[in-house]
Description:
With 290 residues, the chain is of the alpha/beta class.
Amino acid sequence: MLMMALLSPALDVRAITTVAGNVPLNLTSRNARILCQLMDRTDVPVFAGCPRPILRAPVTAEDFHGDSGIAGLDPFEPDRPVDPTHAVMHLVDTLRAAAPGEYTLVVTGPMTNVAAALVLDPSIARGISRLVLMAGADSEGGNITPHAEFNVFADPHAAAIVFEAGIPATVMSLDVTHTVRAELPRIERLKALRSEKASIMIRLLEAANELEARWKEGRKAPMHDPSTVAFLLAPQLFTSTPATVSVVTDAGETFGQTQVSTAGGGLHDWVTSADADGFFGLIEDILERA
């Protein structure tokens, strides 16, 4: 996801904010800076955010994503440090100063930072044209519990705040991300590019496939987070339906479940399908131009 965003000249990446997610905050902050350095984009600042959820006990996913959170690459300490400003305050300050609808926020982890910013100053919503979220599941069920997707389950109270904020959102749930996978012929086409950045992408995809195979032999890695940036670059690859999304925050077996209502539409575009070959064609095009 970060490679696609940082390498595409079509996107103006102003900042990366990190949060505790698949691995703790110190590692997500380091990994974001690693990718910036490898992509020759150390001009993009990285702001570290919330180290834990708003209310629930912290939950991470090293068992699935590996201890480093960046499987396929050898971690190192990047040259550029984390910005000293807290990610939540950066969001508040930036969006307060923004023109109406100036920013698109791409959120591919727990929504703690965005929720905290909206609680501190609800008026900042005016500076956001759209949220693009990797969040939730409906027909696919969950990937951390039978009902809940990890990003929402990791901080359902934050997700509820964000979905209730009245901001237009495109929601990339497991319903669609599970249909776009790193099948071997797609990786083979990338190998023909023979560039350093293509090699990094291939290592990440192959490592993701190895981790996925731990859970189900032969199954390839779904493109969860990259779907958000793919939507920004090529929205024609996706179809969606207007909806209103809510989150179960009551304790019980459905804790963290996203509930999707399409009756009467809504501000949330629930993405239902994707052109998987077109998706990987987009990645190939980005790498060819890098």
